[in-house]
Amino acid sequence: MKREIITTADGSKTIQITDWNEQYHSKHGAVQEAYHVFISNGLDLFKNKKVNLLEIGFGTGLNALITLMEGEKRNLEIYYKGVEAYPVSLKEIEELDYLSALDGVDVKDGFKKMHDSHWQEEVKINSSFTLFKDKRDFKRIADQNLFDLIYFDAFGARVQPELWTVTIFEKMFKALRVGGYLVTYAAKGSVRRAMQEVGFLVERLPGPPGKREMLRARKPI
Q1: Which of 4, 14, 90, 145 registers the highest number of CB atoms within 10 A of its CB?
Q2: Measuring CA to CA, which residue among 126, 73, 128, 62 is closest to residue 100?
Q3: What digits encode the pLDDT tens for the residues 137-190?
Q4: What is the reported pTM?
């Protein structure tokens, strides 16, 4: 499928899949969306502790980079597992230029290490951030009771409805520890109901620019 780099409303870039009219991040602001959904409504639930984090859709590495930056500010020790079936090319990563968008000169070496590291290999990005990139179809995830937080950042249900089903969210529920959270930009009623069916407690929250709402789900204590 045809892919192109586009500039979003906040000046940061993303990849657009032209045939689907779908983007890796919001066209209303890639960086703004990442901060709003995954940091403000996800990572900020944790302070001064170890966090095991699962990202569904590692994609461009933007969420991982921002988590690396923000985790240090919050004194977090992060184990980050990013699952991706179709890795983005290094050429595309360079063209996206997220280090400039985030003024991320301090994490330049870490970001390079993220993308230079091999899939299926645990790598220490710095003293407080460990990355494991898992090249895997989401439907083959089998982790149980391992994660405190899930960033659910798959392509939208409009183009890949099979990723937003009871079957997938049951895997997410099992992967989380008791009391753990899942956050996503999505807000469709069918997505919320699928989460609730597997046992999640789901809340609607104000969405990022361009979206009225988003969802946050918790595995009950």
Answers
A1: 14
A2: 62
A3: 999 999 999 999 999 999 999 999 999 999 999 999 999 999 999 999 999 999
A4: 0.96
